[in-house]
Specification:
Order of helices and strands: HHHHEEHHHHHEHEHEHEEHEEEHEHEEEE
Pfam families: MSS51_C, zf-Mss51
Number of helices: 15
Distance between the termini: 29 Å
Strand order of the largest sheet: 5-6-7-4-3-8-11-15-12
Number of strands: 15
Bound molecules: zinc ion
Number of domains: 2
InterPro entries: Mss51-like_C (IPR046824), Mss51_Znf (IPR032717)
Largest sheet: 9 strands, mixed
Helix content: 25-40%
Protein backbone atom coordinates (compact mmCIF):
# COMPACT_ATOMS: atom_id res chain seq x y z
CA UNK A 1 0.00 0.00 0.00
CA UNK A 2 2.95 2.23 0.26
CA UNK A 3 4.99 4.20 -2.20
CA UNK A 4 8.14 2.88 -3.74
CA UNK A 5 10.03 5.59 -5.50
CA UNK A 6 9.87 9.30 -5.90
CA UNK A 7 10.82 11.59 -8.69
CA UNK A 8 9.63 15.04 -7.72
CA UNK A 9 9.72 17.28 -4.68
CA UNK A 10 6.18 16.32 -3.78
CA UNK A 11 7.09 12.69 -3.93
CA UNK A 12 10.06 13.49 -1.80
CA UNK A 13 7.73 14.68 0.89
CA UNK A 14 5.81 11.51 0.49
CA UNK A 15 8.95 9.62 1.20
CA UNK A 16 9.50 11.73 4.25
CA UNK A 17 6.28 10.37 5.60
CA UNK A 18 7.13 6.85 4.71
CA UNK A 19 10.57 7.08 6.17
CA UNK A 20 9.51 8.84 9.30
CA UNK A 21 7.88 5.89 10.92
CA UNK A 22 10.43 3.13 10.48
CA UNK A 23 13.13 5.59 11.49
CA UNK A 24 11.42 5.86 14.75
CA UNK A 25 12.65 2.55 15.96
CA UNK A 26 15.70 2.12 13.87
CA UNK A 27 17.14 5.23 15.39
CA UNK A 28 16.81 4.36 19.01
CA UNK A 29 18.64 1.57 20.67
CA UNK A 30 19.02 2.47 24.28
CA UNK A 31 19.54 -1.07 25.45
CA UNK A 32 22.12 -2.03 22.93
CA UNK A 33 24.99 -0.74 24.91
CA UNK A 34 23.65 -1.79 28.20
CA UNK A 35 23.21 -5.35 27.00
CA UNK A 36 26.77 -5.40 25.79
CA UNK A 37 29.07 -4.05 28.49
CA UNK A 38 32.64 -3.18 27.64
CA UNK A 39 34.81 -6.24 27.69
CA UNK A 40 36.84 -5.68 30.77
CA UNK A 41 39.22 -8.29 32.08
CA UNK A 42 36.81 -10.86 33.36
CA UNK A 43 38.57 -13.78 34.93
CA UNK A 44 37.16 -17.24 35.14
CA UNK A 45 36.69 -16.98 38.88
CA UNK A 46 34.93 -13.68 38.69
CA UNK A 47 32.11 -15.47 36.89
CA UNK A 48 31.12 -16.97 40.21
CA UNK A 49 31.13 -13.79 42.14
CA UNK A 50 27.73 -12.66 43.20
CA UNK A 51 26.49 -9.82 41.18
CA UNK A 52 25.80 -6.67 43.11
CA UNK A 53 22.11 -6.04 43.35
CA UNK A 54 20.65 -3.84 40.68
CA UNK A 55 23.61 -1.72 39.76
CA UNK A 56 22.74 1.53 38.08
CA UNK A 57 24.12 1.31 34.57
CA UNK A 58 27.23 3.39 33.99
CA UNK A 59 26.48 5.88 31.24
CA UNK A 60 28.88 5.85 28.33
CA UNK A 61 28.10 9.47 27.62
CA UNK A 62 27.27 12.04 30.25
CA UNK A 63 24.52 14.58 29.86
CA UNK A 64 26.95 17.33 28.91
CA UNK A 65 28.62 15.22 26.24
CA UNK A 66 25.77 14.28 23.94
CA UNK A 67 26.75 16.32 20.90
CA UNK A 68 29.00 14.68 18.31
CA UNK A 69 29.53 15.12 14.62
CA UNK A 70 27.92 12.12 12.95
CA UNK A 71 31.25 10.92 11.60
CA UNK A 72 32.78 11.11 15.07
CA UNK A 73 29.98 9.57 17.06
CA UNK A 74 31.00 6.83 19.47
CA UNK A 75 28.05 4.82 18.16
CA UNK A 76 28.37 2.87 14.89
CA UNK A 77 24.68 3.27 14.08
CA UNK A 78 24.97 7.06 14.15
CA UNK A 79 28.10 7.00 11.99
CA UNK A 80 26.33 4.66 9.55
CA UNK A 81 23.39 7.01 9.32
CA UNK A 82 25.72 9.89 8.56
CA UNK A 83 27.26 7.88 5.75
CA UNK A 84 23.84 7.02 4.37
CA UNK A 85 22.88 10.70 4.32
CA UNK A 86 26.09 11.55 2.46
CA UNK A 87 25.09 9.24 -0.34
CA UNK A 88 21.46 10.36 -0.49
CA UNK A 89 21.12 14.05 0.27
CA UNK A 90 22.04 16.71 -2.29
CA UNK A 91 23.73 19.93 -1.18
CA UNK A 92 20.98 22.58 -0.95
CA UNK A 93 23.24 25.38 -2.17
CA UNK A 94 24.35 23.45 -5.26
CA UNK A 95 20.72 22.49 -5.81
CA UNK A 96 19.49 26.08 -5.76
CA UNK A 97 22.12 27.26 -8.21
CA UNK A 98 21.12 24.29 -10.30
CA UNK A 99 17.55 25.56 -10.25
CA UNK A 100 18.62 28.89 -11.66
CA UNK A 101 19.47 26.96 -14.76
CA UNK A 102 22.65 28.81 -15.43
CA UNK A 103 23.70 27.27 -18.71
CA UNK A 104 27.30 27.05 -17.58
CA UNK A 105 26.60 25.51 -14.15
CA UNK A 106 24.42 22.71 -15.23
CA UNK A 107 26.08 20.11 -13.04
CA UNK A 108 23.99 17.94 -10.75
CA UNK A 109 24.04 19.13 -7.14
CA UNK A 110 26.83 17.46 -5.25
CA UNK A 111 26.04 15.22 -2.30
CA UNK A 112 26.40 16.55 1.22
CA UNK A 113 29.83 15.95 2.68
CA UNK A 114 30.61 18.73 5.11
CA UNK A 115 29.30 18.37 8.64
CA UNK A 116 27.89 21.52 10.22
CA UNK A 117 29.89 22.12 13.42
CA UNK A 118 26.74 23.36 15.17
CA UNK A 119 24.35 20.46 14.50
CA UNK A 120 26.76 17.68 13.51
CA UNK A 121 24.76 16.55 10.47
CA UNK A 122 26.24 16.32 6.99
CA UNK A 123 24.44 19.28 5.43
CA UNK A 124 26.44 20.71 2.51
CA UNK A 125 28.94 19.67 -0.14
CA UNK A 126 31.65 21.91 1.28
CA UNK A 127 32.43 24.34 4.05
CA UNK A 128 32.06 27.19 1.51
CA UNK A 129 28.51 26.21 0.63
CA UNK A 130 27.70 25.69 4.31
CA UNK A 131 28.95 29.20 5.10
CA UNK A 132 27.03 30.64 2.14
CA UNK A 133 23.69 29.10 3.14
CA UNK A 134 21.54 31.56 5.07
CA UNK A 135 18.69 29.04 5.20
CA UNK A 136 20.49 26.46 7.29
CA UNK A 137 19.97 28.53 10.44
CA UNK A 138 16.30 27.63 10.26
CA UNK A 139 17.05 23.94 10.64
CA UNK A 140 20.27 23.89 12.61
CA UNK A 141 18.92 24.00 16.16
CA UNK A 142 16.34 21.27 15.51
CA UNK A 143 18.98 19.11 13.90
CA UNK A 144 21.22 19.59 16.89
CA UNK A 145 18.36 18.56 19.17
CA UNK A 146 17.88 15.35 17.20
CA UNK A 147 21.63 14.71 17.25
CA UNK A 148 21.72 14.98 21.03
CA UNK A 149 18.58 12.88 21.45
CA UNK A 150 20.09 10.10 19.36
CA UNK A 151 23.22 10.08 21.51
CA UNK A 152 21.19 10.30 24.70
CA UNK A 153 19.18 7.20 23.77
CA UNK A 154 22.43 5.29 23.37
CA UNK A 155 24.22 6.91 26.28
CA UNK A 156 23.61 3.98 28.61
CA UNK A 157 21.89 6.08 31.24
CA UNK A 158 18.82 4.62 32.90
CA UNK A 159 15.94 5.74 30.73
CA UNK A 160 13.27 6.30 33.33
CA UNK A 161 10.94 7.78 30.75
CA UNK A 162 10.53 4.27 29.34
CA UNK A 163 9.48 2.76 32.67
CA UNK A 164 5.79 2.23 32.09
CA UNK A 165 3.21 2.14 34.89
CA UNK A 166 1.06 -0.85 35.77
CA UNK A 167 -2.71 -0.92 36.29
CA UNK A 168 -4.43 2.37 37.09
CA UNK A 169 -5.62 3.00 40.60
CA UNK A 170 -9.40 2.90 40.34
CA UNK A 171 -9.83 5.98 42.49
CA UNK A 172 -7.92 8.20 40.09
CA UNK A 173 -9.36 9.19 36.74
CA UNK A 174 -7.01 9.57 33.80
CA UNK A 175 -7.01 12.94 32.08
CA UNK A 176 -6.36 13.24 28.36
CA UNK A 177 -5.84 17.01 28.11
CA UNK A 178 -2.23 16.75 27.02
CA UNK A 179 0.86 14.64 27.56
CA UNK A 180 1.80 16.29 30.86
CA UNK A 181 -1.52 15.79 32.55
CA UNK A 182 -1.83 12.33 31.09
CA UNK A 183 1.57 11.27 32.42
CA UNK A 184 0.78 12.75 35.79
CA UNK A 185 -2.65 11.17 36.16
CA UNK A 186 -1.34 7.84 34.82
CA UNK A 187 1.50 7.77 37.35
CA UNK A 188 4.39 7.90 34.91
CA UNK A 189 7.78 8.92 36.25
CA UNK A 190 7.93 12.70 36.04
CA UNK A 191 9.19 13.90 32.70
CA UNK A 192 11.64 16.51 33.89
CA UNK A 193 13.19 17.55 30.62
CA UNK A 194 12.05 18.29 27.12
CA UNK A 195 14.25 15.43 26.01
CA UNK A 196 12.40 12.96 28.24
CA UNK A 197 9.14 14.26 26.87
CA UNK A 198 10.33 13.69 23.32
CA UNK A 199 11.51 10.15 24.04
CA UNK A 200 8.36 9.18 25.93
CA UNK A 201 5.91 10.77 23.49
CA UNK A 202 7.59 8.99 20.61
CA UNK A 203 7.34 5.64 22.36
CA UNK A 204 3.72 6.06 23.37
CA UNK A 205 2.15 8.01 20.52
CA UNK A 206 0.53 5.01 18.80
CA UNK A 207 -1.29 3.39 21.74
CA UNK A 208 -2.15 6.64 23.50
CA UNK A 209 -3.42 8.31 20.33
CA UNK A 210 -5.93 5.47 20.03
CA UNK A 211 -6.76 5.49 23.72
CA UNK A 212 -7.24 9.26 23.90
CA UNK A 213 -9.62 9.25 20.94
CA UNK A 214 -11.93 6.50 22.15
CA UNK A 215 -11.83 7.05 25.92
CA UNK A 216 -14.86 8.61 27.59
CA UNK A 217 -12.62 11.39 28.91
CA UNK A 218 -11.22 12.20 25.47
CA UNK A 219 -10.15 15.79 24.79
CA UNK A 220 -12.06 15.53 21.49
CA UNK A 221 -15.51 16.73 22.51
CA UNK A 222 -18.68 18.25 21.16
CA UNK A 223 -17.98 21.47 23.03
CA UNK A 224 -14.62 22.05 21.36
CA UNK A 225 -16.15 20.89 18.07
CA UNK A 226 -13.59 18.20 17.45
CA UNK A 227 -16.33 15.61 17.91
CA UNK A 228 -19.36 15.91 15.63
CA UNK A 229 -22.94 14.99 16.60
CA UNK A 230 -22.67 12.07 14.17
CA UNK A 231 -19.36 11.16 15.74
CA UNK A 232 -20.82 11.17 19.21
CA UNK A 233 -23.09 8.29 18.14
CA UNK A 234 -20.09 6.25 17.12
CA UNK A 235 -18.30 7.10 20.33
CA UNK A 236 -21.31 6.28 22.48
CA UNK A 237 -21.47 2.83 20.90
CA UNK A 238 -17.76 2.15 21.40
CA UNK A 239 -17.77 3.48 24.95
CA UNK A 240 -20.64 1.26 25.88
CA UNK A 241 -18.33 -1.65 25.22
CA UNK A 242 -15.16 0.04 26.51
CA UNK A 243 -16.51 1.30 29.81
CA UNK A 244 -19.78 -0.52 30.45
CA UNK A 245 -22.97 1.15 31.52
CA UNK A 246 -22.68 4.31 33.53
CA UNK A 247 -22.11 3.61 37.17
CA UNK A 248 -20.83 0.08 36.72
CA UNK A 249 -17.38 -0.45 38.17
CA UNK A 250 -14.58 -0.71 35.65
CA UNK A 251 -12.94 -3.83 36.85
CA UNK A 252 -11.47 -6.91 35.29
CA UNK A 253 -14.47 -8.88 36.52
CA UNK A 254 -16.77 -6.51 34.66
CA UNK A 255 -15.07 -7.48 31.41
CA UNK A 256 -15.80 -11.17 31.79
CA UNK A 257 -18.96 -11.23 29.74
CA UNK A 258 -18.09 -8.51 27.30
CA UNK A 259 -17.27 -8.81 23.63
CA UNK A 260 -13.73 -7.98 22.60
CA UNK A 261 -12.97 -4.55 21.19
CA UNK A 262 -11.40 -5.15 17.80
CA UNK A 263 -9.03 -2.48 16.58
CA UNK A 264 -7.92 -2.92 12.97
CA UNK A 265 -4.71 -1.04 12.29
CA UNK A 266 -4.37 -0.99 8.53
CA UNK A 267 -1.21 -0.30 6.59
CA UNK A 268 0.69 -0.91 9.82
CA UNK A 269 4.49 -0.66 9.83
CA UNK A 270 6.52 0.47 12.83
CA UNK A 271 3.45 0.28 15.03
CA UNK A 272 3.27 -3.47 14.36
CA UNK A 273 6.72 -3.92 15.86
CA UNK A 274 6.14 -2.03 19.07
CA UNK A 275 6.66 -4.44 21.96
CA UNK A 276 3.36 -5.78 23.32
CA UNK A 277 4.00 -4.22 26.72
CA UNK A 278 3.80 -0.80 25.06
CA UNK A 279 0.46 -1.72 23.46
CA UNK A 280 -0.64 -2.94 26.86
CA UNK A 281 -0.60 0.72 27.91
CA UNK A 282 -3.68 1.14 25.72
CA UNK A 283 -5.50 -1.67 27.51
CA UNK A 284 -4.62 -0.30 30.95
CA UNK A 285 -6.69 2.79 30.16
CA UNK A 286 -9.76 0.56 29.99
CA UNK A 287 -9.72 -1.91 32.90
CA UNK A 288 -13.12 -3.34 31.99
CA UNK A 289 -12.47 -3.97 28.30
CA UNK A 290 -10.90 -6.78 26.29
CA UNK A 291 -8.87 -5.93 23.21
CA UNK A 292 -7.88 -7.67 20.02
CA UNK A 293 -5.47 -5.63 17.89
CA UNK A 294 -5.13 -6.58 14.24
CA UNK A 295 -2.11 -5.22 12.39
CA UNK A 296 -2.78 -5.67 8.70
CA UNK A 297 -0.56 -4.49 5.87
CA UNK A 298 2.21 -5.57 3.53
CA UNK A 299 4.81 -4.15 5.91
CA UNK A 300 3.57 -5.74 9.10
CA UNK A 301 6.37 -7.21 11.15
CA UNK A 302 6.09 -10.96 11.84
CA UNK A 303 7.83 -12.98 14.57
CA UNK A 304 11.09 -14.54 13.61
CA UNK A 305 10.78 -18.25 12.81
CA UNK A 306 10.53 -20.56 15.82
CA UNK A 307 13.48 -22.62 14.57
CA UNK A 308 15.96 -19.79 15.03
CA UNK A 309 18.13 -19.90 18.09
CA UNK A 310 16.39 -19.21 21.35
CA UNK A 311 16.98 -15.78 22.75
CA UNK A 312 17.76 -16.06 26.42
CA UNK A 313 17.00 -13.02 28.47
CA UNK A 314 20.04 -10.84 28.64
CA UNK A 315 21.59 -10.94 32.05
CA UNK A 316 21.06 -7.25 32.40
CA UNK A 317 17.35 -7.82 32.25
CA UNK A 318 16.96 -6.60 35.79
CA UNK A 319 17.54 -3.11 34.51
CA UNK A 320 13.84 -2.42 34.26
CA UNK A 321 13.80 -0.23 31.23
CA UNK A 322 11.45 -1.25 28.48
CA UNK A 323 12.99 -0.65 25.13
CA UNK A 324 11.36 1.98 22.97
CA UNK A 325 11.80 -0.25 19.98
CA UNK A 326 11.10 -3.86 19.17
CA UNK A 327 13.02 -5.79 21.73
CA UNK A 328 13.85 -8.15 18.93
CA UNK A 329 16.07 -5.66 17.31
CA UNK A 330 17.83 -5.03 20.54
CA UNK A 331 18.48 -8.69 21.02
CA UNK A 332 19.72 -9.05 17.48
CA UNK A 333 22.02 -6.17 17.94
CA UNK A 334 23.20 -7.45 21.25
CA UNK A 335 23.93 -10.95 20.05
CA UNK A 336 25.48 -9.66 16.88
CA UNK A 337 27.66 -7.38 18.91
CA UNK A 338 28.68 -10.27 21.10
CA UNK A 339 29.91 -12.28 18.14
CA UNK A 340 31.55 -9.60 16.08
CA UNK A 341 34.20 -7.05 16.77
CA UNK A 342 32.56 -4.14 18.48
CA UNK A 343 33.60 -1.77 15.73
CA UNK A 344 31.87 -3.62 12.94
CA UNK A 345 29.18 -1.49 11.38
CA UNK A 346 25.59 -2.37 12.02
CA UNK A 347 23.40 -2.79 9.00
CA UNK A 348 21.77 0.51 8.46
CA UNK A 349 18.90 0.58 6.03
CA UNK A 350 18.22 4.10 4.89
CA UNK A 351 14.51 3.98 4.30
CA UNK A 352 14.35 6.35 1.44
CA UNK A 353 12.90 4.60 -1.54
CA UNK A 354 10.76 2.17 0.32
CA UNK A 355 10.60 2.15 4.08
CA UNK A 356 11.75 -1.28 5.11
CA UNK A 357 9.45 -3.66 6.86
CA UNK A 358 10.46 -3.55 10.51
CA UNK A 359 12.72 -6.36 11.64
CA UNK A 360 10.98 -9.52 12.81
CA UNK A 361 9.61 -9.15 16.29
CA UNK A 362 10.34 -11.28 19.32
CA UNK A 363 8.52 -14.57 19.25
CA UNK A 364 6.35 -14.50 22.31
CA UNK A 365 6.09 -17.88 24.01
CA UNK A 366 2.39 -18.06 23.26
CA UNK A 367 2.66 -16.84 19.67
CA UNK A 368 1.13 -19.17 17.15
CA UNK A 369 0.98 -19.15 13.40
CA UNK A 370 -2.36 -18.07 12.02
CA UNK A 371 -1.82 -18.80 8.35
CA UNK A 372 -4.40 -21.55 8.33
CA UNK A 373 -6.95 -19.29 9.87
CA UNK A 374 -6.40 -16.22 7.73
CA UNK A 375 -4.72 -17.65 4.63
CA UNK A 376 -1.87 -15.13 4.74
CA UNK A 377 1.43 -14.95 6.66
CA UNK A 378 0.25 -14.12 10.13
CA UNK A 379 0.53 -14.77 13.86
CA UNK A 380 -1.55 -14.37 16.98
CA UNK A 381 -0.34 -13.75 20.53
CA UNK A 382 -2.70 -13.92 23.51
CA UNK A 383 -0.44 -11.51 25.41
CA UNK A 384 -2.55 -11.06 28.53
CA UNK A 385 -6.12 -12.03 29.35
CA UNK A 386 -6.99 -8.48 28.31
CA UNK A 387 -4.92 -8.21 25.13
CA UNK A 388 -4.61 -10.37 22.03
CA UNK A 389 -2.49 -9.26 19.09
CA UNK A 390 -2.72 -10.57 15.54
CA UNK A 391 -0.41 -9.51 12.72
CA UNK A 392 -1.12 -10.22 9.05
CA UNK A 393 1.38 -9.41 6.34
CA UNK A 394 -0.93 -8.72 3.40
CA UNK A 395 -3.10 -6.08 1.81
CA UNK A 396 -6.31 -5.52 3.69
CA UNK A 397 -8.55 -6.43 0.75
CA UNK A 398 -7.08 -9.96 0.83
CA UNK A 399 -8.63 -10.66 4.22
CA UNK A 400 -11.65 -8.38 4.30
CA UNK A 401 -14.06 -11.16 3.33
CA UNK A 402 -13.21 -13.01 6.54
CA UNK A 403 -14.41 -10.10 8.65
CA UNK A 404 -17.06 -8.57 6.43
CA UNK A 405 -20.06 -10.20 8.07
CA UNK A 406 -18.86 -9.60 11.60
CA UNK A 407 -18.30 -5.85 11.77
CA UNK A 408 -20.18 -4.14 14.56
CA UNK A 409 -19.94 -0.40 15.34
CA UNK A 410 -20.20 -1.23 19.05
CA UNK A 411 -16.99 -3.21 19.11
CA UNK A 412 -14.94 -2.49 16.00
CA UNK A 413 -12.91 0.42 14.71
CA UNK A 414 -10.17 1.14 12.20
CA UNK A 415 -7.01 3.15 12.73
CA UNK A 416 -4.78 4.26 9.85
CA UNK A 417 -1.52 5.91 10.87
CA UNK A 418 -0.28 8.28 8.14
CA UNK A 419 -1.91 6.40 5.27
CA UNK A 420 -0.88 8.91 2.59
CA UNK A 421 -4.31 9.16 0.94
CA UNK A 422 -3.41 12.40 -0.78
CA UNK A 423 -0.06 11.31 -2.19
CA UNK A 424 0.34 10.14 -5.76
CA UNK A 425 0.48 6.41 -6.24
CA UNK A 426 3.90 5.22 -7.37
CA UNK A 427 2.33 2.46 -9.46
CA UNK A 428 -1.11 3.47 -10.73
CA UNK A 429 -1.88 6.17 -13.27
CA UNK A 430 -5.15 7.59 -14.51
CA UNK A 431 -6.32 6.10 -17.79
CA UNK A 432 -7.60 9.43 -19.00
CA UNK A 433 -4.87 11.84 -17.98
CA UNK A 434 -1.91 9.48 -17.48
CA UNK A 435 -1.20 11.34 -14.24
CA UNK A 436 -0.48 9.25 -11.17
CA UNK A 437 -3.65 8.51 -9.21
CA UNK A 438 -3.88 9.64 -5.64
CA UNK A 439 -3.41 6.71 -3.31
CA UNK A 440 -6.93 7.11 -1.95
CA UNK A 441 -8.32 6.27 -5.39
CA UNK A 442 -5.60 3.97 -6.63
CA UNK A 443 -6.41 0.27 -7.21
CA UNK A 444 -2.99 -0.69 -5.82
CA UNK A 445 -3.32 1.34 -2.61
CA UNK A 446 -6.42 2.53 -0.73
CA UNK A 447 -8.87 2.62 -3.64
CA UNK A 448 -10.55 -0.75 -3.02
CA UNK A 449 -10.19 -0.53 0.76
CA UNK A 450 -11.95 2.64 1.91
CA UNK A 451 -15.40 1.83 0.47
CA UNK A 452 -15.25 -1.51 2.33
CA UNK A 453 -14.44 0.26 5.59
CA UNK A 454 -17.19 2.83 5.09
CA UNK A 455 -19.72 0.07 4.42
CA UNK A 456 -18.97 -1.41 7.85
CA UNK A 457 -20.28 1.80 9.52
CA UNK A 458 -17.47 1.41 12.03
CA UNK A 459 -15.42 4.56 12.68
CA UNK A 460 -12.17 5.08 10.78
CA UNK A 461 -9.51 7.21 12.46
CA UNK A 462 -6.58 8.64 10.55
CA UNK A 463 -3.38 10.46 11.52
CA UNK A 464 -1.01 12.67 9.58
CA UNK A 465 2.49 13.99 10.23
CA UNK A 466 1.98 17.73 9.69
CA UNK A 467 -0.77 20.28 9.03
CA UNK A 468 -0.06 20.08 5.30
CA UNK A 469 -0.15 16.31 5.37
CA UNK A 470 -3.52 16.20 7.12
CA UNK A 471 -4.90 18.77 4.71
CA UNK A 472 -3.66 16.82 1.69
CA UNK A 473 -5.29 13.61 2.91
CA UNK A 474 -8.56 15.34 3.79
CA UNK A 475 -8.74 17.11 0.44
CA UNK A 476 -8.32 13.82 -1.35
CA UNK A 477 -11.55 12.54 0.22
CA UNK A 478 -13.53 14.85 -2.02
CA UNK A 479 -12.18 13.26 -5.17
CA UNK A 480 -12.20 9.55 -4.42
CA UNK A 481 -14.91 7.36 -5.98
CA UNK A 482 -16.83 5.49 -3.30
CA UNK A 483 -15.60 7.92 -0.63
CA UNK A 484 -16.71 11.40 -1.70
CA UNK A 485 -20.22 12.00 -0.37
CA UNK A 486 -20.26 8.61 1.33
CA UNK A 487 -19.02 9.53 4.79
CA UNK A 488 -19.84 11.57 7.86
CA UNK A 489 -17.19 13.22 9.99
CA UNK A 490 -16.61 11.67 13.37
CA UNK A 491 -13.62 13.75 14.49
CA UNK A 492 -12.88 16.99 12.65
CA UNK A 493 -9.31 17.31 11.35
CA UNK A 494 -6.91 18.98 13.76
CA UNK A 495 -3.97 18.55 16.06
CA UNK A 496 -3.46 15.34 18.00
CA UNK A 497 -2.67 16.06 21.66
CA UNK A 498 -0.75 12.76 21.76
CA UNK A 499 1.49 13.06 18.74
CA UNK A 500 5.21 12.47 19.05
CA UNK A 501 7.08 15.60 20.05
CA UNK A 502 10.26 14.45 18.37
CA UNK A 503 11.32 15.66 14.92
CA UNK A 504 11.93 12.86 12.46
CA UNK A 505 14.54 13.86 9.92
CA UNK A 506 14.60 12.50 6.35
CA UNK A 507 17.84 10.85 5.29
CA UNK A 508 17.43 12.07 1.72
CA UNK A 509 17.18 15.70 2.83
CA UNK A 510 17.83 16.69 6.44
CA UNK A 511 15.74 19.82 5.89
CA UNK A 512 12.63 17.66 5.74
CA UNK A 513 11.32 17.07 9.26
CA UNK A 514 7.99 15.76 10.48
CA UNK A 515 6.38 14.63 13.71
CA UNK A 516 4.71 11.23 13.92
CA UNK A 517 0.93 11.49 14.40
CA UNK A 518 0.88 15.30 14.49
CA UNK A 519 -2.81 15.40 13.58
CA UNK A 520 -5.89 13.18 13.86
CA UNK A 521 -9.38 13.00 12.36
CA UNK A 522 -12.11 10.43 11.86
CA UNK A 523 -14.99 9.47 9.61
CA UNK A 524 -17.67 6.82 9.19
CA UNK A 525 -19.88 5.51 6.39
CA UNK A 526 -22.89 7.76 5.90
CA UNK A 527 -26.15 6.80 7.48
CA UNK A 528 -28.79 6.27 4.83
CA UNK A 529 -31.90 5.70 6.86
CA UNK A 530 -33.86 8.81 7.62
CA UNK A 531 -36.01 7.09 10.18
CA UNK A 532 -34.67 4.55 12.48
CA UNK A 533 -36.03 2.17 14.97
CA UNK A 534 -35.38 3.33 18.47
CA UNK A 535 -32.85 1.40 20.42
CA UNK A 536 -30.91 0.09 17.47
CA UNK A 537 -31.00 3.31 15.56
CA UNK A 538 -27.47 4.47 16.17
CA UNK A 539 -26.31 3.33 12.76
ZN1 LIG B 1 27.11 22.60 -2.59
ZN1 LIG C 1 23.81 23.03 11.49
Amino acid sequence: MRGKAFASPSMALHIARRSAVPRLWAASRPQLYRACPPRTSRTFLSLFKRKPTKPEPQPILTEDNLFHLFSQSPFPAVRARGEAIRTLAPCPVCASSHDHADAHVKAEPRAVQFECPDCGWPTHCSEEHWAADEEHKKYCSRLREVNEDEHDLRSGRRLREFELPGPQDQENAISFSNWDIFWYTRNFPSMDTERSRRHASKLLTYPITIGSVIHQYSYLTLSNQRLTPEGSRSMAALRYTLHGETGTPETEEASALKPQMRIFILGARAESSLPPHVWEQLCLLFPAALFHLYFIGPQVSLPKPPSSSPTPKPTTAEAPSPSPEPAKETENQASAAAEKPAEEKPTYLPNVYEPPTPAPIVRHKRARESIERYGVPSYTVPYTPQLTITGMQCNYDEVHAQFQETFDPYTDLFFLFSPGFGFPSPTSVSETTSEPLLQIASPTEWGPVLPLLLASKCPIFVTGFSPADVERDVKSLATAPGVAGEFDWVITPGENAFGSEKWEVADFDPRVMVKTNWGVWGMRGKRRDVRERSGFGLF
